UniProtKB/TrEMBL annotation:
Keywords: Membrane, Transmembrane, Transmembrane helix
InterPro entries hit by this protein: YcxB-like_C (IPR025588)
Pfam families (alphabetical): YcxB (PF14317)
Listed name of the protein: YcxB family protein
Transmembrane parts of this sequence: 21-40, 46-66
Domain YcxB-like C-terminal: 86-136
Top-level taxon in the UniProt lineage: Bacteria
C-alpha cells in the first residue's frame, strides 16, 4: 500500500492537458498544419502562411495554459490536497469527507511525462501524480501501477 497527499497546481494540470491534447488526432493535426504553414511561409516567402502557422502552433498551448489556471482557481477540488491510497483494490482518492475508489481493472492506461505520472480513469479524466510531490514514493507508485495493470496499458518511463 502506498499513501500520499498531492495538491494539484495549475502547472500539473497544464502538463496533463498538453499531453492529453497532443496525443489526440486533433492536437496532432493542428501541430502538423501549423508546422506546414511555417515551413511554406518561410520557403516560399508567403508571410501570411508563416503568421498563420505560428498562430496555429501557439493557440493550443496558450489556451490550455489559460484553462489550467482557470480550473485550478475556480474548482474547489484543487484548493485542498488530495489524499491517495494505492492498494490491491485500486486507487482511493479522498478529500475532506468525500472518497472514491477506482478499481485497477477500470483504469484505462498509465503514462508518464517529465513532470507527472498519469493514470487515465476515463477517456478524458485521469489521476495525476506530480513527481515533485511524490518524493521517495515515486518508485513505489510506479511499482504499484505496473503490478496491478496489464503491461500493455502501462507506458511509464522512469
Amino acid at each position: 500500500m502506498v499513501e500520499l497527499d498531492v495538491k494539484i497546481t495549475s502547472g500539473d494540470l497544464y502538463d496533463f492537458l498538453l499531453r492529453h491534447s497532443y496525443n489526440s488526432v486533433s492536437g496532432l493535426l493542428g501541430a502538423v498544419i501549423g508546422a506546414l504553414g511555417v515551413v511554406v511561409g518561410i520557403s516560399r516567402q508567403y508571410w501570411i502562411y508563416l503568421i498563420l502557422g505560428v498562430v496555429i502552433l501557439l493557440y493550443l498551448p496558450w489556451t490550455l495554459f489559460i484553462k489550467s489556471k482557470q480550473q485550478v482557481a475556480n474548482n474547489p477540488v484543487f484548493r485542498e490536497p488530495l489524499h491517495y491510497v494505492l492498494d490491491e483494490n485500486g486507487i482511493t482518492i479522498s478529500q475532506g469527507d468525500s472518497s472514491t475508489c477506482q478499481a485497477w481493472e477500470d483504469c484505462l492506461k498509465a503514462v508518464s511525462t517529465g513532470r507527472s505520472i498519469i493514470v487515465y480513469t476515463a477517456k478524458n479524466n485521469a489521476t495525476i501524480f506530480p513527481k515533485s510531490q511524490m518524493q521517495d514514493k515515486t518508485t513505489d507508485v510506479i511499482e504499484m501501477i505496473s503490478t496491478h495493470m496489464p503491461p500493455a496499458k502501462v507506458k511509464i518511463r522512469s
